[in-house]
Protein: UDP-glucuronate decarboxylase
Amino acid sequence: MKQLHKQSSPNHWRDEAIPSSQTPPYSPKTLKHPRSLSRSLNYLLKEQRLLFILVGILIGSTFFILQPSLSRLNPSEPKPPIPRSISIPIHESRTVPNRGSKKGGVGRVPVGVGRRRLRIVVTGGAGFVGSHLVDKLLARGDDVIVIDNFFTGRKENVMHHFGDPKFELIRHDVVEPILLEVDHIYHLACPASPVHYKYNPVKTIISLLNYKTNVMGTLNMLGLTKRIGARFLLTSTSEVYGDPLEHPQKETYWGHVNPIGVRSCYDEGKRTAETLTMDYHRGAGVEVRIARIFNTYGPRMCLDDGRVVSNFVAQAIRKQPLTVYGDGNQTRSFQYVSDLVDGLMALMGSEHIGPFNLGNPGEFTMLELAQVVKETIDTSARIEFKPNTDDDPHKRKPDISKARELLNWEPKISLREGLPLMVSDFQNRILNENEGKGNK
Ligand SMILES: NC(=O)c1ccc[n+]([C@@H]2O[C@H](COP(=O)([O-])OP(=O)(O)OC[C@H]3O[C@@H](n4cnc5c(N)ncnc54)[C@H](O)[C@@H]3O)[C@@H](O)[C@H]2O)c1
Structure:
């Protein structure tokens, strides 16, 4: 090795020129150092080499400083092709490298670099609320993974994102575990409308409850959140207040729920999900957020799912009488979906756990709502009365002062402004009544 080293040394020829009688004793490298240093300096200073090196360093560092902002300014940059629809079975689900922030926060961002792109899971992201949330998260620049079993959701709700490399869709039932590494988890998956949860009450319980066999939805997502150190947001509901004895409802109200009624699988399921969420927070230090959502409406709601706004709008478009259950004097408040999405994102981004009421405090009787629908769609629409359903709450109206104060959030869109925004979507889908058949 020593021999080889000597031969390849640049000093080799000069060393050979020294007569053997004058050959100095072997000297360690350190003694040669000053000479080779001065030679290196000479080499650098000759022919302006140093100047060229400095200019090269300057150009390189300028490129690396400017590169992120240049790529942001150039949205037309071609995107790598990916399949139109990505559906990844559990064993193929992508696990990504640990993203550093174990607390799911955005972390400190150096000036001029911009907000760190988050990786976000939305369970139930192909549903009504979920798909609007996905739109907004992607528009903000985050990576979004939708998990949905299409029980009530539709691929059409998120189809416009197929081909976007920041979007992934996984057909998966949240009652089964899944492993992904993300920063935030919005947990919306749940059969949420009366028609669906009454149709399959045991499944609803499965999505929500805490016992080993029928609990796995919320529990799985909380377990995942704990494991990867993410932040979890539960979309609970105003149904946790049951048929309320306090009006309007504040978050401090514990509710008045029939535990054995036809609606209990949903109401009690969400109450248990809230309990689990808080227990994971208290017991395991998991970062959680709880939103209690009041009636929300907008484009992409399921047709004929038994919710009053979608029922009235679909009936008016089909020229059918609007069905009012009971005397029509029970009250509800109606929030446009974009207001809710803003509230959910404000809550996820805040340092507050909740629960927070997210709803529009405007209060309408069912008859008043029917009137607004008539004025918006068809003034000649008739109203038809039917006997009321069991355990239908008499009144509902959120007190949103907590969200106003701590999240700086309040709804912006009134019922009269919001209703027309969902009508054209319903008209198109009703014209194509085969919706849903064949795309599941
Ligand atoms: N829209 C409202 O007025 C309202 C009010 C209160 C609470 N919420 C809550 O908001 C969330 C979203 O509601 P929505 O109105 O968008 O309902 P939705 O039915 O349109 O969406 C629910 C989504 O969850 C999916 N899903 C159901 N069970 C699943 C499972 N086991 N695994 C994977 N995916 C599953 C469905 O396919 C659907 O895409 C729900 O948790 C609901 O309880 C909604």
Remarks:
- The first strand starts at residue 119 and ends at 123.
- DSSP finds 14 helices and 13 strands in the chain.
- Residues 49-72 form the longest helix (24 residues).
- Residues 1-32, 68-110, 206-214, 436-440 have pLDDT under 50 and may be disordered.
